[in-house]
Structure formats: structure tokens, C-alpha cells
Automatic annotation (TrEMBL):
Protein name: N-Dimethylarginine dimethylaminohydrolase
Transmembrane segments: none
Biological classification of the source: Bacteria, Bacillati, Actinomycetota, Actinomycetes, Micromonosporales
Organism: Micromonospora chaiyaphumensis
Active site: H167, C261
Molecular functions per Gene Ontology: amino acid binding; dimethylargininase activity
GO biological process: arginine metabolic process; citrulline metabolic process; positive regulation of nitric oxide biosynthetic process
Alphabetical keyword list: Hydrolase
Family: Belongs to the DDAH family.
């Protein structure tokens, strides 16, 4: 099996103001210590990994008082040169939305505003010709219809059922046009059946891998950047011919985030080569 890496363009946000000051998911414990300097060093290693792989990394300025802004995947959904802004469920993150929106606008994307709660690529993943859209905890089911209208890809609703895997990108990772990896237990029976139908060759992750946010991974079609602790998943990926790169994001995980959460894919209308 030959794999071709596609050069990616990513948006990231330095965790300058990162902290765990509130709890909006089960990973977050505001009483537990967080090493803010280590968080920045770990994030820097992620950014450098992308650069070393030949990807382009754009940066948005972090905003003081928005400790979760490092999770750029939640800043929008960007496909074919169109950017859909976000609307957060929780008031603590609300002010991130206009900051990201302004960045997309300045970067020249065609802008669309969300009519319902929509947490961007945290819940909206392009897999081949389908948009997989999570709901159950954050992104509202009603927003799936708007995503289909804006982007013109068939949207497949994915019902999330485990509060630890509150965003789709904590339960499923897109590896290439045809392949995904996911944790079956994170989905409703109906969604599991849909996943089996769409992706009969999918990799099934173990609970142990998901519990270290192993599915919060970023693939360019050949290299998969994933949490270093997700060793079983990494072995399964290598069996399938992917090259795995483990990154330790222990501090950001205290907020419920991993590599994918820190990384928003910017998909231009034109091919970026
Ligand atoms: N603390 C953040 C929240 O709960 C983490 C977001 C993680 N992002 C992601 N794409 N899964 O909203």
C-alpha cells in the first residue's frame, strides 16, 4: 500500500494564556495544577512537527482571558475556501468566536455565520466526500443542515454518547479519503451502524487509547501525529502503513484537548502545493 502525504495548511494559536479555570468537560479540574510553561513547550513541539513535515502553519494571536483559545479546531470549519464561523455552547468560550471570525475574514475566506451552536472542526470532519458531524454534547443537530447547505457535502450525523468524548474529534480521526479510526463505544448504536456501512475497513480504537485522547490525531494521509501515550493505536496505524509521530501534550489534555484540537485545517478552494 502506498501512501501520499498531502501538504496541509493549518491554523494554530499559541497557548500563551492557557489555564484550566473552569470545567466544561469531564477532563477539566480547575483545582488540579497545570504547568503553563510546559504546555507552551509541548505545543511548540507540535507546531515544529508540522513544519518539519513540510506543512504550512498560520498563527492567530491569543487573547488574554480566553484560556481555551489554543484549541483552534473549534475556531471554525474551513472547506473549499469557505469558512463557517462558530457559536460555542459555553459562555466561557464565546469571545473566541469573533476573534477567529476576524482572522478568517482577514485571510480572505468567504464567511458564513452559524445559526446554531457549532464548535467547528471539533465536531465537523471531512472524510472523503462526506462531512461527519457530531452532536449530543456541543454542536447542535440543527447546525448540521446549515453545514450541508453552506458546504454542499452530504452531512452524516454522528450521535455522541460518552461525555468524555464530547467532540467528534475526540472519538474519531480521519486518516485519508477512505479510512477513519474511531472508538465504537463513543457512538450511539445507529451511528455505529452508519460508520460500519461507510467505513468497513475502519480501525477500531481501544478505550485505553481513547482515554489518552489518542483519536485526537492529525493525518496528512501518510504521517499521523497523535498523543504519544496512544501506543496501541499507533501500532495499528503502522500495521496499515502509516508513519506515526507521538507527541506529549499532557498539559493541554488537562483541558480535554490533544493535537487535533490545537489544529484547524484550512482548505483552500485551490490546491495548496
Ligand atoms: N476545554 C475545551 C472545551 O471543552 C477543549 C476543547 C477541545 N477541542 C476539541 N476540538 N476537541 O471546549
Amino acid at each position: 500500500m502506498t501512501m501520499d502525504a498531502t501538504r496541509q495548511r493549518f491554523l494554530m494559536c499559541r497557548p500563551t494564556y492557557f489555564a484550566v479555570d473552569y470545567a466544561i468537560n469531564p477532563w477539566m479540574d480547575p483545582t488540579a495544577p497545570v504547568d503553563a510553561d510546559l504546555a507552551i513547550r509541548q505545543w511548540e513541539q507540535l507546531r515544529q512537527t508540522y513544519v518539519d513535515l513540510g506543512h504550512e502553519v498560520e498563527l492567530i494571536d491569543p487573547v488574554a482571558g480566553l484560556p481555551d483559545m489554543v484549541f483552534a479546531a473549534n475556531g471554525g470549519t474551513v472547506i473549499d475556501g469557505k469558512a463557517m464561523a462558530v457559536q460555542f455552547r459555553d459562555p466561557q468560550r464565546a469571545d473566541e468566536a469573533p476573534a477567529y471570525r476576524a482572522w478568517f475574514e482577514a485571510a480572505g475566506f468567504e464567511m458564513y455565520d452559524p445559526k446554531h451552536v457549532n464548535e467547528g472542526e471539533g465536531d465537523v470532519l471531512l472524510a472523503g466526500d462526506h462531512l461527519l458531524a457530531g452532536t449530543g454534547f456541543r454542536t447542535a443537530h440543527a447546525s448540521h443542515a446549515q453545514l450541508q447547505e453552506v458546504f454542499g457535502y452530504p452531512v452524516i450525523t454522528m450521535q455522541l454518547v460518552d461525555p468524555r468524548f464530547y467532540h467528534l474529534d475526540t472519538a474519531l480521526t480521519v486518516l485519508d479519503e477512505r479510512t477513519v479510526a474511531y472508538l465504537p463505544e463513543a457512538f450511539s448504536p445507529g451511528s455505529r451502524a452508519v460508520l460500519r456501512r461507510l467505513f468497513p475497513d475502519a480501525i477500531h480504537a481501544t478505550m485505553a487509547d481513547a482515554e489518552v485522547l489518542g483519536l485526537n490525531a492529525v493525518s496528512d494521509g501518510q504521517h499521523v501525529v497523535l498523543p504519544a501515550q496512544a501506543t496501541d493505536l499507533a501500532a495499528k496505524l503502522r500495521d496499515r502503513g502509516y508513519e506515526t509521530i507521538g507527541i506529549d501534550l499532557s498539559e493541554l489534555r488537562k483541558a480535554g484537548g490533544g493535537p487535533k484540537c490545537c489544529t484547524l485545517r484550512l482548505r483552500q478552494g485551490k490546491a495548496v502545493k
